[in-house]
Design brief:
Elements (H helix, E strand, L loop, with lengths): L16 E2 H8 L3 H9 L8 H4 L2 E2 L1 H17 L3 H23 L12
Antiparallel strand pairs: 1-2
Length: 110
Amino acid sequence: MTRQHIVSGELIDEVTLTLEDLARACSVDTDWVIERIESGLLADGSPYVASWRFTSHDLTRARRMCQLERDFEAAPELAALAADLIEENQRLRERLRAAGLVDDPAPPER
């Protein structure tokens, strides 16, 4: 797949992507996405997976995993673990901000 076919933009939570859309947005083959779903590393049992539809959370996670695999030559399981930790860090920062314990915003998501 070539870089010129990259889909960019921001997804609204109600909008879902097809398998092909998700793969294109991550610049990977559909097999890459299917392998990670079948391994339990992506789309964590969402009801959308049965119909091959993906949410903005799935897109963010897939892009993050793809980047970790490419940039650091990480195994898919390691990339998924790192994505889990990044997501947990973001949730904790949001909770601290909501509780008024942190003034500065979280660093921009990658």
